[in-house]
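Ticket 4471: requesting a sanity check on a complex prediction with adenosine-5'-triphosphate. Repro inputs:
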Amino acid sequence: MSQFWKPGTEKPRSCLVDDEEGGVLFYAAPPSSSGHGYSSFERLRQRLPVFKYRTAILYLVEKHATTIIVGETGSGKTTQIPQYLKEAGWAEGGRVIACTQPRRLSVQSVASRVAEEMGVKVGEEVGYTIRFEDKTNQGVTKIKFLTDGVLLREMMNDPLLTKYSVIMVDEAHERSLSTDTLLGLLKKIQRRRPELRLIISSATIEAKSMSNFFRTRKKNDGQASEDNGPNIEPSILSVEGKGFPVEIFYVEEPVSDYLRAAVDAVLLIHEKEPVGDVLVFLTGQDDIDAAVQLLTDEARETTRRHSGLLVLSLYSGLSRADQDLIFTPTPKGKRKVIISTNIAETSLTLEGVVYVVDSGFSKQRFYNPISDIENLVVAPISKASARQRAGRAGRVRPGKCFRLYTEDFFVQDMPVEGIPEMQRSNLVSFVIQLKALGIDNILGFDWLALPPPESMIRALEVLYSLEILDEDAKLTSPTGFQVAEIPLDPMISKMILTADALGCLEEIITIAAILSVQSIWVSVRGTHKGLDEVKLRFAAAEGDHVSFLNVYKAFLQSGKSSQWCYKNYINYHSMKKVVEMREQLSRLVRRLGIIPKSCGMDMQAVRRAIISGFFAHASQLEEYSQNGMYKTVRSSQEVYIHPSSVLFRVNPKWVVYHSLVSTDKHYMHNVIAIDPSWLTEAAPHFYQQRRPSIPLF
Ligand SMILES: Nc1ncnc2c1ncn2[C@@H]1O[C@H](COP(=O)(O)OP(=O)(O)OP(=O)(O)O)[C@@H](O)[C@H]1O
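Returned structure tokens:
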């Protein structure tokens, strides 16, 4: 595959040229401004573009309830503004300054950077909280970084978030479900707490529409004591200037295989460009594993092109220790290549990164409330994401960003911003959280983007069937309130609570942890005999969930050996994440006063616990089906067991699945065989009232 810069256009000032066959050639877009680095933190801080705006920011925050700050990536918004606020006294009298991020990884990394700049330990004056991990010290922590999801959870105990004086919602352009929920709720809190200040920040936000949202009020929003309070008209501040220049390069012709093109680009950079690490944006674990494999294979074939490359992957299914590797300094004479999903897209500064390779794609969630299928689809990113990705270079020195799409595509076809997650997600967790906060009229609430009514109805239906909501759509006691306490998908939470009663919580925690990673198997492109044979070795007649227990047990017996994983086509990184997640879940249930017990070999208890959460995902094999066609009980939808399941071709009469994915057909992922009478026992309300046509088995 070859691409060339446009003949007849001005020759690039600097470009990658591959003189061998099959390479990639980029041409350069116009350059941006430049800057310099300094050694001491204080001088470094003062060199950042945001520093010139320190006084203006503090003035606006003092005078306005809401301030919207837009500034280039790397201009210093995330690390500096919380420090300015603290210096100006916003953390005095026991108050705390909060700064939210959409992702855990950026929470941890910005917290440690700010602590370092302030010369304090993380967990003291500067702390962070992410799901399952709290590194703050009450009464001591003044600046707290946290995910927006965690701040939402804090509202359950403190609905007005009284301990915070300023809440900075960073990377608001992401429009994640949690960010949008948070913004809607914060707007409401402001009416009750005029002293609370909000800062909404991003490099790529539509400031005008955000400002309109905070300016307008619904009639029933209540009135703040505006006479003495701050100006409710939001202020907008644009931070001019950027850190170091990032040259943008585009491919001349669209690439047909972005994965191969990304690998080629890395090899070219390694051959032609001076020292500096490379950050590559691909879409998911499977892509990333494949790219790592391709780079490793190249190394075997042509050591010249490859020597000195240190290839690391980065995705959310990695354990914390594996993720932390990306922050370790690159050894002399080596070049680190980090192949990542969009978890490295915002807020991160990776000191060694000079080059960014952007595939132009990410995995995005799309939910169809009619079929109840939520698919992770590889789709083109938005301009905002592309700018964020480029912004991972040029933070401590000049950088280059190689986009594996054409400039025309960027200019003409990429949307300015992505579709808000609220409009393309399953809303079950969202609804339960709002219910726990006592918000009943969810559709009548003031949202930045209205959640689709069909998705809301579907979510209410699911929560009602799980007996988490009652007929008045209020949380049930104790189940609803307990489930709302657990920061997991409500179906998993319900399964955990039932497992306690059935005495199989140890097993269910393992299953819940495994279901939370993308896959415990090594991803291989196409079919793979070895993997199929290994799967058979662990296969349990009951289905995938019980087979997972066999894998986990064998992994423990091997002494958690990476060699054992390698031999058995099991993804060692995923297993480490499972162990970590398992520990977190054990701690969580103990906090709720539950002591996990094991049911030994009683797999019926395990299956019954699974059904208690997933009874609505039952399917029956079509009686005369030749090709393994099932129909879902809920909507008579045609579905099939996924080929990766141990029950593929076994086709038990009745099954319960974990999730549906659609490719050429609708496939059931992670399936167990069940006795249909367990369904009516687990959810009589669902099966007898709502499904009178379901036979009495
Ligand atoms: N861990 C780090 N190591 C070295 N320098 C860092 C680190 N974190 C931040 N910096 C420096 O501080 C600058 C500002 O970072 P900061 O995250 O505050 O910017 P930002 O405006 O919030 O960017 P973004 O919009 O990308 O989140 C970086 O460009 C970099 O020069």
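Notes from triage: Residues 48, 71, 73-80, 113, 203, 243, 346-347, 349, 351, 391, 395-396 surround adenosine-5'-triphosphate (CB under 6 Å). Leaving this open until the requester confirms.
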